[in-house]
Design brief:
alpha+beta, BirA Bifunctional Protein, domain 2, Rossmann fold, 8-stranded mixed β-sheet, 5-stranded mixed β-sheet, 16 strands, binds adenosine-5'-triphosphate, binds magnesium ion
Length: 413
């Protein structure tokens, strides 16, 4: 019997892993140049951190967290990055404003589907301690420019404002009155959301519910004066940045901590898994976690989902020529070591065979690793002061001098 990986997880290797690492490297470089510092937090945290920040009545906390007990304390594999980053900012006394980038695995107990896994990677950014609407637009602008650097197009941006607790209080009565007669027609999730976390009904993925919400009053049309101005100014800055966006008054986020601006980057034709970046403002979260009043805005990108959705974006992986060194006999070992160093220094891949193996076995290994060239160095070669170079693509084989081999490697493309 062969063991199988847990459902909803993936083994990533070869070209796919290289592509992911290219994107990760691209993110590190791009965000560093935009004044960000990378932060790495633990993959597990105390359960209270997420209950406190994400909110008790959210999909994540209600049913998606992997929890475990240790030393009579409950922990969770982190389902998202923002709460951990803010915990780290407070615990390490980082002084806002600060710009942080995180790259790492997240874990959610979800029903596995294409683009929806139980372990997945996010790249996320947080602008901590920034209240002005310029930063809402800048945060979106950074995502646009980052996607540009990695060649992603074809997406569209949806924008909304979900106001603050003041706007929500007055809006709550309005939506409750409107929805009362429709309650029996809503799905069971929405009936629960309506009781516990009413804004989240709009997040429902069922058409029957969405039809009802289409004509319902929206929070965006009922913002308090300050939130209304903030939203207006954010849109003005986005236009100044030349960023196209669509307003979607039904856009809310699944997490409790969002205030005012929320946004998603989506792709057409991806079904329910169409969001590659999601984010927004969360002005109340730092205080909720015990810090001073610190307005923040940020977003997170699902890396696997983005790669799946944008095959044309798959960065070209530069294939480097591959060498195999077949030294025959222990006494010639030093020569092989020197050759390998030189090949690697020139930026090529080099595998060193086992000098105690016969030439036949070493050639078999070279075939197995699909190398481009084999350099053979055995007793004959040593006696004549030459190397045998075999081109594995053409099968051609010739004896060349030390100088020629150096030249060959240096000129190899
Ligand atoms: P969804 O509505 O798709 O469940 P979400 O609101 O739970 O998304 P966020 O918590 O905002 O998503 O996460 C940000 C991004 O991370 C998503 O837009 C998506 O690209 C990615 N993501 C979220 N959950 C998963 C998952 N289970 N598998 C792969 N990627 C995911
Ligand atoms: Mg989700």
């Amino acid at each position: 019997m062969i063991y199988q990986r847990p459902r909803g997880t993936r083994d990533i290797y070869g070209d796919e892993l290289e592509r992911i690492e290219l994107i990760n490297r691209g993110a590190r470089e791009f965000f560093k140049l935009n004044g960000f510092t990378e932060i790495r937090t633990p993959t597990f945290e105390s359960i209270e951190l997420f209950v406190r920040s994400i909110g008790l009545h959210t999909d994540i906390v209600e049913k998606e967290m992997y929890t475990f007990e240790h030393d009579k304390k409950m922990f969770v594999l982190r389902p998202e990055g923002t709460a951990s980053v803010l915990r780290a900012v407070l615990e390490n006394g980082l002084k806002p404003p600060c710009r942080l980038l995180y790259i790492g695995q997240m874990f959610r107990k979800e029903r596995p589907q294409k683009g929806r896994y139980r372990e997945f990677q996010q790249i996320g950014v947080e602008l901590i301690g920034e209240a002005a609407p310029f930063y809402d637009a800048e945060c979106i602008n950074l995502a646009v420019r980052f996607l540009d650097t990695i060649g992603a197009t074809h997406y569209f941006i949806e924008l909304n404002s979900i106001g603050c607790p003041v706007c929500r209080q007055s809006y709550k009565n309005m939506i409750e009155n409107y929805l009362k007669p429709y309650l029996p027609n809503l799905c069971s999730d929405c009936q629960r959301r309506f009781e516990k976390n009413f804004l989240r009904i709009f997040d429902c993925k069922k058409d029957s519910c969405q039809k009802i919400y289409e004509v319902a009053p929206k929070i965006t049309d009922n913002l308090c004066e300050e939130c209304g101005l903030h939203y207006q100014k954010t849109k003005e800055f986005l236009k100044k940045f030349n960023i196209n966006f669509e307003e979607n008054k039904k856009l809310v986020r699944g997490l409790d901590y969002y205030t005012r601006t929320v946004f998603e980057f989506k792709l057409k034709g991806l079904g329910a898994q169409d969001t590659i970046i999601a984010g927004g403002r969360y002005d109340l979260l730092v205080k909720e976690l015990g810090g001073d009043n610190t307005p923040c805005i940020g977003w997170a990108m699902g890396v696997e989902r983005m790669l799946l959705a944008l095959p044309e974006l798959q960065p070209e992986i530069k294939k480097s020529k591959k060498f195999f060194i077949a030294v025959i006999g222990e006494s010639l070992f030093d020569e092989g070591v020197k050759l390998r160093e030189m090949i690697i220094k020139n930026g090529f891949i080099c595998i060193h065979g086992n000098p105690l193996d016969k030439i036949k076995t070493q050639m078999k290994d070279a075939h197995h690793y699909k190398v481009d060239y084999v350099i053979i160095y055995g007793e004959d070669e040593a006696a004549q002061g030459v190397y045998t170079l075999k081109n594995m693509m053409t099968g051609e084989q010739k004896k060349i001098s030390q100088n020629e081999i150096i030249q060959f490697i240096e000129q190899c493309q």
